[in-house]
Write a structure and sequence with these properties.
The protein is an alpha/beta fold and 377 residues long. It folds into 2 domains: 9-104 and 112-245, Aspartate Aminotransferase, domain 2 (3-Layer(aba) Sandwich), CATH 3.40.640.10; 247-376, Aspartate Aminotransferase, domain 1. The protein is 38% helix and 12% strand. The protein has helices at residues 9-15, 17-30, 37-50, 61-71, 89-96, 141-151, 203-212, 234-243, 247-265, 298-307, 337-345, 357-376; strands spanning 54-58, 79-82, 100-103, 126-130, 154-158, 166-167, 170-171, 178-182, 196-200, 279-280, 286-289, 346-349. The strands form 3 sheets. It has a 7-stranded mixed β-sheet, sandwiched between helices. The protein has a 3-stranded antiparallel β-sheet with strand order 7-6-10, with no helix packed on it. Strands 11-12 form a two-stranded antiparallel sheet. The structure holds pyridoxal-5'-phosphate (PLP). The site of pyridoxal-5'-phosphate has 15 residues, from helix 4 and helix 5.
């Protein structure tokens, strides 16, 4: 039986092949590989899509987070509050900037940063909060922004999984002081290599990010501060320009596929994703929870699905405070119980805009084959 992959980048490419191929050819013909009109045009088009004043293309989502922190002058001695349940790059970028990540536990249902626990973590050193719109669903931004306002903190959205997501009718990436996107190939809007973007309404901040991404340069050979080689290249920008007009359709297809999974799982013991009624979840990942233990634990379900030819992964198995790299923080098991439980229960099922109802039915059948057996055991 054929495999059902977690994501199918080939299906998407084939659906828009002439547009992608033409975009790549355009860059090859121009030989403008670094900076140039493709990068500028994509920055403008992405800013317009979100309704923000400005956007800067950068080398990756990680670079976007690193530069956003630097451009807000956040560094050694500063603390930045974020979630322990995220891709490692969120916490890594805080440390790369020289600051200290401070973790706050998550909401059990959305798996996003829990605003009710943030204030207890604020100290005189706290400078910013980085909520992650995990799996493609916005964090509770009104609450987070209100806390930030009360304490004079910056809020930087980690929107790496939230292209096309909305919070109370407004796009993720346009909700706070700044936002960071990744265009890693599997993201809702992905390029064919590495890429990222910083967005903001603060044009002075954006100008600073623009300088920092390019060796702190003002003229061709004049460098006014320490910067990085963190540019978005023109080939990636051209590919992203070809894809951006399709993003709304792709998000609608992802949402329809998520809805279909919800219906197929209805009435079962599988916990389906919680979507707040005021959010438009972009379903970067369709993440179910399975609370079984012993020989019916989540990892056994993952093994069963993998054997059945179904591409599943765990987003993410080890919370940040339990990562070996942060052992020196001395935060053991039990520090963030919600994040720890979630990490033991989540698993991401195949989801992409081209997934068919037949493929989804096969995925759900394979899950039920395991859960039924575990009930009998
Ligand atoms: C993908 C991702 C990043 C990092 O993006 P890269 O482009 O891979 O550097 C950061 N944060 C989150 C939440 C992500 O999913």
């Amino acid at each position: 039986m054929s495999q059902i992959p977690l994501v199918d980048l080939k299906a998407q490419y084939l659906s828009i092949k002439p547009e992608i191929d033409a975009a790549i050819q355009r860059v090859l013909d121009s030989t403008a590989f670094i900076h140039g009109p493709e990068v500028t045009a994509f920055e403008e088009e992405f800013a317009r899509y979100l309704g923000v004043r400005a956007a800067v293309g950068v080398a990756s989502g990680t670079a976007a987070l690193h530069l956003a922190l630097l451009a807000f002058d956040i560094g050694p001695g500063d603390e930045v509050i974020t979630t322990p349940h995220t891709f490692y790059a969120t916490a890594e970028a805080i440390a790369q900037a020289g600051a200290t990540p401070v973790f706050v536990d998550i909401q059990a249902d959305t798996c996003n940063l829990d605003p009710t626990r943030i204030e207890a973590a604020i100290t005189p050193r706290t400078r910013a909060i980085i909520p992650v719109h995990l799996y493609g669903q916005a964090a509770d931004m009104d609450e987070i922004l209100a806390i930030a306002r009360r304490h004079g903190l910056r809020v930087i959205e980690d929107a790496a999984q939230a292209h096309g997501a909305h919070y109370r009718g407004r796009p993720c990436g346009a909700l706070a002081d700044a936002a960071c996107f990744s265009f890693y190939p599997s993201k809702n809007l992905g390029c064919y290599g590495d890429g990222g973007m910083v967005t903001s309404d603060d044009e002075a901040f954006i100008a600073r990010v623009r300088r920092l991404r390019d060796h702190g340069r003002v003229g061709k050979y004049e460098h006014v501060e320490l910067g990085w080689g963190y540019r978005l290249d023109a080939l990636q920008a051209a590919i992203l320009r070809a894809k951006l007009p399709h993003l709304e359709t792709w998000v609608a297809q992802r949402r329809a596929a998520a809805q279909r999974y919800n219906e197929l799982f209805a009435g079962s013991e599988v916990v389906t994703p919680a979507e707040r009624e005021y959010n438009r979840h972009a379903y970067y990942s369709y993440v179910i929870r399975w609370a079984g233990d012993g020989s019916a634990c989540r990892d056994d379900l993952v093994a069963h699905l993998t054997r059945s030819g179904i591409g599943v992964v765990i987003h993410y198995p080890i919370p940040m405070h339990l990562q070996p790299v942060y052992r020196s923080m001395g935060l053991g098991r039990g520090t963030f119980p919600v994040a720890e439980t979630v990490a033991d229960q989540v698993l991401s099922l195949p989801l992409y805009s081209e997934i068919t109802p037949e493929q989804q039915a096969r995925v759900v059948e394979a899950v039920f084959a395991f859960t039924r057996r575990s009930q009998l055991a």
